[in-house]
Leucine rich repeat containing 8 VRAC subunit E
Amino acid sequence: MIPLAEFKQFSEQQPAFKLLKPWWDVLAEYLTVAMLMIGVFGCTLQVTQDKIICLPSHEPRENLSEAPCQQLLLQGVPEQMEGLQEVSGLKNNLDLQQYSFINQLCYEKALHWYPKYFPYLVVIHTLIFMVCTSFWFKFPGTSSKIEHFTSILGKCFDSPWTTRALSEVSGENRKGHATGRATATVAAEAGPGKVGEGEKEKVLTEPEKVVTEPPAVTLLDKKEGEQAKALFEKVKKFRVHVEEGDILYTMYIRQMVLKVCKFFAILVYNLIYVEKISFVVACTVETSRFTGYASFCCNHTKAHLFSKLAFCYISFVCVYGITCLYTLYWLFHRPLKEYSFRSVREETGMGDIPDVKNDFAFMLHLIDQYDPLYSKRFAVFLSEVSESRLKQLNLNHEWTPEKLRQKLQHNTTGRLELALCMLPGLPDTVFELREVEALRLEAISDITFPPGLSQLVHLQELSLIHSPARLPFSLQIFLRDRLKVIRIKCEELREVPLWVFGLRGLEELHLEGLFPPELAQAATLESLRELKQLKVLSLWSNAGKVPASVTDVAGHLQRLSLHNDGARLLALNSLKKLTVLRELELVACGLERIPHAVFSLGALQELDLKDNHLRSIEEILSFQHCRKLITLRLWHNQIAYVPEHVRKLRVLEQLYLSHNKLEALPTQLGMCSGLRLLDVTHNGLHSLPPELGLLQNLQHLALSYNALETLPDELFFCCKLRTLLLGYNQLTQLSPQVGALRSLIRLELKGNRLEALPEELGNCRELKKAGLLVENSLYEGLPAEVREKMEEE
C-alpha cells in the first residue's frame, strides 16, 4: 500500500506561498487531493485483491461470447426449493494452480487496458496536475522572485511603520471629514441671510470642538525605524529587479495552458473508454493442452467499483477543468501586467504611490485574490512621502535637542549658528532650539521647511549649501522681514528658490552657482526689486556680464562681489549706476585692464581685482576721482611695474600687490602719505627705494618671498611700523637701525642669509620672542639680556 505522505513533496510549498494562491488554485489543490485518493484507493485494491476470476466454458469456441457468459452467470438458484438438497454443478477437473494460471493469463490477454490500468492512470494524471500547479514555485527562475516577494510582503504587512503611516493618514482624513461636516452643520443652523460676524466666528471655531481624536499612533523606537528604512531599500531594489521582465506571468500562463490541454485529453479518452469497464469478460486462450479448455468466462471482480470511481474521477476532472478555463479567462481578460494603486491613493491620501507593471503587477493581482489588505499595506513602502516621513522620524530619534545644542557655536559674524551637514533630511528637533540665530544646512537633499520654523524667532541668517529647499507661503511671510543674511550654493543658479527674491528684509545675499552655457552670456538673474534693504550682494558664477537685475538695488547696494571662475566678464558699464557702492570685488573675471566704470564710483572705499590678467595698471591715475578709496587689492595678477603717478593716491591706506611680477617699486610710492599697509610679497624685488621711509603712517610692510639683498636705512624711519615681514629673501645682514622701530611687534627673518642679529633688537620694546620669526641659531646668538627681555611677559 502506498501512503499519501509519499506524494506530499509534489505539492508542498512554503507556507508563505499561499499568498499567491487564489481561490481557484486552492480549489484545484483540493480536487487533486481527491483525485489522488481515488487513484491510490484503486491501486490498493488492484494490488491486494484478486483481479479476475475465470471458469471454463463448455460452449464451443466459435459460439463463445460475452452473452452466454452473461446468461450463465445470471442463472441462479431457484427461488422456491422444496426442502434442502445438494447443489451440484459441472465438474471441470481443474486444480488450484490451473485456475491461477488461467486467471493471470486471461487478465493479461482478455481484459481491456483501460480497466486494467485505470487507477495507475489516475495517479499519474493527478501527479502531473500537481507538478503543473506547483512548478513555478519550484523553478529557480521564478521561485527566487516569489520567495523574495513573499518575504518582503510579510515584513511590510507586520511592520509597525505600516500601522503608523496608515493611522496617521486615517487620522488626517477623519479630521478633514469631521471639520467639513461640522462647518456645514453650523452654516445650516445659521440659516440663509443670517450669517453675520458672530456666525462667521462660530463657523470658524466650532469645528475645532467637533473634530474627533485621531487614532492612537504607534510609537516607533530606533530599532523599528531602522528596520523600516531597510525595508524601503529592499522594496526599491526588488521593484527595479522584478519590473524588468514577465517570467512569472509567462510561466503561470504556460502551466495553466498545459493543465487545460491535459484536462481535455483526460476527459476525451475517459469518456470513450469508461464503458470498457465490464463485470463479465469472455476469454479465449490456447490452454487446452494444459487444462483441456480453450474458452473461459471471467469475472472482473473490481469492475463495479472501478466504474463508480471512474464516474467520480471524471466529475472531479470536469470541475478541475472548469476552474482552469476560468483561470485562463481571468488571465487573458484583465490587464494583469499593469497594476494601479488608484483606490489606495484615494483611500490613504498618499498620491505619490506609483503604478507598477510586469511581474510585480501580476503578483499584486494574485495577492488581491487572497486579501487586498496586503496590497494596501505594501503600498506604504512604495510611497516616497511615507519614506520621507520615516526618515524624518529616524532623524528625530537620532538628533535630539540635547545633541543639537552641542553643535551650537558662534560664526564669523558673531551669530549663534547651528551647522548640519550631509544628513538625509532636516530634523524637526532643530526648531526646538529657539536661541538659534544662524542655520547652516549643507548637502541635505530635498528640504521642505515645516511650520515649526516659525518657532525660530531669532533666526537672522540662513545658509543652504547644495541643499535645495521649499518654503511654504506662510513661512515666507514669517521670514520676509526677519531674515537678514542668506547664502545659497548650488550647481546652477536657476536652482535658486524663487522665494529668496521675495525676502524684503534681506540685507546680504550670497549666491554661488553656474549659469548654463547657453545662458552664461545673458547672465539673467531673477529680479531683485523686492529686496529693498539689500546692502551686500555676492555672486560666484560664470557670467558673461554683470546681471542686469543688479541695477534694481543700485540705490542702496553697498558691497558687490563678483567671482567669475576665470570666465571673462564684459559689459561692465552697468556698474556706473551703483552710486552708493562702497566695496567692489571683481575676482577671477578675466580682466586685462582696470574697468573704466570703476572710476565713476565716487563712494567706493575698497576695490579687489584679485586673480585676473592685469599686466599694466596705467589707469591707476584715474583712481584720484575715487576720493574715498582706502583699500586697493591688485594681488594675484601679472603686473610688471607700478606707474609713477601712484603718488596721486594720497588717501590710500592699504595696497596689495603680492603675487605679481614686480622687480622694482617706484620712488613716488613714498608720496602716498596715508598708506598704512603695503603688501608686495611673492614678487621679484631686488631692492627698495629709500623714499619708502617717507611713509610715516605705515604700520604693516610685507616683503617676503622676494630677492632683496639689502634694505635702505631710510626704511627704519617708519617709526609706526608694527609688522615687518622680510622672510625668504637674500639678506646677509640686518641694519642696527632696526632698533628705531619701537612699535614693532612682529618681525619675520626666516629664509635669509643672516649670520647674526643686531643687539639693537633689544630696543624694540614691543617685540617678544613669539613675534620674532627667525632660525633658532640666530636667536641664540643674541645677547642674553636681549633674549631675557624678549621672553618677558
